[in-house]
Amino acid sequence: QIVELLTGAADGLAAAHGAGILHRDIKPANIFVGRNGYAKLADFGLAKLAADQPASNETITSPADETRVGAIIGTIAYMSPEQASGRSLDARSDIFSFGVVLYELLAGRRPFDGASDLEVLKTVIHGAPEPLSSDVPIALRMLVEKALEKDPAERYQTTRDLVVDLRRLAHRPASEEVPPRAGVAPKKSARCGIWIVAAAS
């Protein structure tokens, strides 16, 4: 259900990237589910053309969505390492943020956290998230890990490639699933829809 839900949002993001637009604020609050069950990516208020990416001196939003001026742009807990460092961005930064949302839905917690905004930023740039539970299909775990690679060159290079893999996962029979990795303790998965708000249409 989570994969099918977020494939719609990823498809919308791929369309934006195809038009040369970076969202720069992918987070659960900006994903809405219509009555048809299809997820939509919303709030392009921080979006920019990919060719027009300043490195700093813009607006930063904290995990509590409080906006401040004169720093880097985005929502701290969902930033890519390059975004958190104030570097120039491309589509792979949005892919990282999408991976953060997918991880959160699967794990019931954010992959990068801390007691302060500064700690969260440091974790985004240098820290590694805890492995997802072994009850998450291994192919899905590998997809999330690839989306959350610190080095943009190691991530999905296009959102369209991510969409293709998500669709393959959504239609994969359970019998094809590979056994989980050894040494990873099972944990209860988060319910789909905890962080996604139902929209009217």
Describe the protein.
The chain is of the alpha/beta class and 201 residues long. It is 35% helix and 11% strand. It has six helices and eight strands, in the order αβββββββαααααβ. A three-stranded mixed β-sheet has the order 3-2-8. A three-stranded mixed β-sheet has the order 6-5-7, with no helix packed on it. A two-stranded antiparallel sheet has the order 1-4. A hairpin with a 5-residue loop joins β5 and β6. The chain is globular. The two termini are 19 Å apart.
- Cα Rg: 16 Å
CA-based shape = globular
Helix content class: 25-40%
Structural class: alpha/beta
Query: pLDDT average, as an integer?
Result: 81
Query: Which residues sit in consecutive blocks of at least 5 with pLDDT less than 50?
Result: 55-60, 64-70, 178-201
Task: Detail the topology: elements first, then pairings.
Elements: H1 2-18, E1 21-22, E2 31-33, E3 39-41, E4 48-49, E5 58-61, E6 67-71, E7 74-75, H2 81-84, H3 91-107, H4 117-126, H5 138-147, H6 159-170, E8 197-198
Helix pairs in contact: 1-3, 1-6, 3-5, 5-6
Summarize the structure.
The chain is of the alpha/beta class and 201 residues long. It is built from six helices and eight strands, in the order H-E-E-E-E-E-E-E-H-H-H-H-H-E.
